[in-house]
Design a protein that fits this description.
about 0% strand, about 60% helix, about 190 residues
C-alpha cells in the first residue's frame, strides 16, 4: 500500500534537483573568510585591551586589517578575472601575490613602526587572523561544486559512440538486409 507522501507508483514526489556548479565562488569565500578573521581579531583585540592597554587592542586590529586586506585582494582579483578568463585566474593570483608582498613591505617600510604599536599583540593578531582566514577559506573551497567535465558534450559523445544514458554499451545495429554474407536472405550463412 502506498504511503501518503508517495503516489501509487511508490516514487517520491519531492525529489531535490541536482545542484549545478557554483557560479562565482570568490565573493562568497571572501565574505566567509573575512567574517571568520574579523571575529577572531575582535575577540583577541578585546582580550588585549582588557589585559594590557588600548594600544595593544589597536595593534591586534592593525595586524588583522593588514592580513584581511592582503588576502582579500587575491579573492577580489579572482572574482573579476574569473568571469572573463577562468583559466587565467591562477596566473593572476601568482602575479598579484608578488605585487602584494612587495607593496605591503614597501608601505610598512615607508610608514615605519608607529609609536603606539605593541609588536607582540600585532604579531599575535596577524597570526590569529591568518589562521582563521585559512581555515575558513579551506572550508569554503571544500564546499564548492566544480564540474570536472562538460556534461552536454559528454552525453553527445556517448550517444555518438553508441552508449546509453545508463553508461552501458548499446546493442549493435541489425545487419543490413539483402543478399550477402550472413544476411537473412543467404540460407548458407555465407559458406
Amino acid at each position: 500500500m502506498p504511503r501518503p507522501e508517495h503516489p501509487a507508483t511508490g516514487a517520491p514526489t519531492d525529489l531535490v534537483p541536482a545542484a549545478g556548479a557554483t557560479a562565482s565562488p570568490w565573493l562568497g569565500i571572501l565574505a566567509r573568510s573575512a567574517a571568520a578573521s574579523a571575529g577572531v581579531a575582535l575577540v583577541l583585540a578585546v582580550a588585549a585591551l582588557l589585559a594590557t592597554s588600548p594600544a595593544a587592542g589597536l595593534s591586534v586590529l592593525f595586524g588583522a586589517a593588514l592580513v584581511i586586506a592582503f588576502f582579500g585582494i587575491s579573492l577580489l582579483i579572482g572574482h573579476f578575472a574569473g568571469r572573463s578568463n577562468p583559466s587565467g585566474a591562477l596566473g593572476l593570483f601568482i602575479v598579484t601575490y608578488a605585487i602584494k608582498v612587495v607593496g605591503f613591505a614597501a608601505v610598512l617600510f615607508l610608514l615605519g613602526t608607529p609609536g603606539w604599536l605593541d609588536r607582540t599583540w600585532f604579531f599575535s593578531g596577524a597570526l590569529a587572523t591568518v589562521l582563521a582566514w585559512q581555515a575558513a577559506e579551506v572550508f569554503a573551497f571544500s564546499r564548492l561544486r566544480t564540474p570536472l567535465y562538460d556534461v552536454e558534450h559528454d552525453v553527445e559523445h556517448d550517444v555518438a559512440r553508441g552508449r546509453t544514458a545508463a553508461g552501458t554499451v548499446a546493442p549493435p545495429a541489425a545487419p543490413p538486409a539483402g543478399p550477402g554474407k550472413g544476411s537473412p536472405a543467404d540460407p548458407t550463412g555465407g559458406r
